[in-house]
Specification:
The protein is mainly α and 173 residues long. It has one domain: Ferritin (Up-down Bundle). 76% of the residues lie in helices and 0% in strands. α1 runs antiparallel to α2, α2 packs parallel to α5 and α3 runs antiparallel to α4. Bound molecules: MU-OXO-diiron. The site of MU-OXO-diiron has 7 residues, from α1, α2 and α3.
């Protein structure tokens, strides 16, 4: 049986993963309306990943005798000022998620819940990958600057990443 403190912290994480999924979905939809099909495909895929992160937590909480709480959906922004801004937001958001995962691990250690702490190691590794990926994308964008041809290739590259093996897709099963 899972401790109440751990259960409640995991439920907060469920809400955060759900809102991450919605946030990236809003970004994907915006990118699609801007004609950036590759960026959109990448972000749709990222949104799906976040939903899987949420689902994995839901199942874990229920399997451990707790009760997963499915959060309400919040309205998301409809417009974003630039692709650069979108990926800066992705990185900031992923850093927040990483901090929350670390808090969760800390709670597990305090509660001596080594099973959940072990379960969370997957999320710890996943966050390292996701932050690194966001930084790589931002580096590319800085390199491109305002170059339109550069943006064309950037969009194409991101599209091919979401069609093939996307680093953020690894290990979600
Ligand atoms: Fe599931 Fe990207 O945090």
């Amino acid at each position: 049986m899972i401790a109440k403190k751990v259960e409640s912290a995991l439920n907060q994480q469920i809400a955060l993963e759900a809102s991450s999924s919605q946030y990236y979905l809003a970004m994907a939809s915006w990118a699609e309306t801007q004609g950036l099909e590759g960026v959109a495909a990448f972000l749709y895929s990222h949104s799906d990943e976040e939903r899987l992160h949420m689902l994995k937590l839901v199942k874990y909480v229920n399997e451990r005798g707790g009760k997963a709480l499915i959060p309400a959906l919040k309205a998301q922004p409809q417009n974003f000022k630039s692709v650069q801004y979108v990926f800066e937001e992705v990185l900031t958001h992923e850093e927040l998620v990483s901090a929350e995962i670390n808090n969760l691990v800390e709670i597990c250690l305090k509660e001596k819940d080594y099973t959940t702490q072990n379960f969370l190691q997957w999320y710890v590794s996943e966050q390292i990958e996701e932050e690194a990926l966001s930084r790589r994308v931002l580096d590319k964008l800085k390199f491109i600057g305002n170059d339109k041809a550069g943006m064309y290739f950037f969009d194409r590259d991101l599209g091919s990443m979401s069609g093939g093996e996307v680093p953020i897709m690894k290990g979600t099963n």
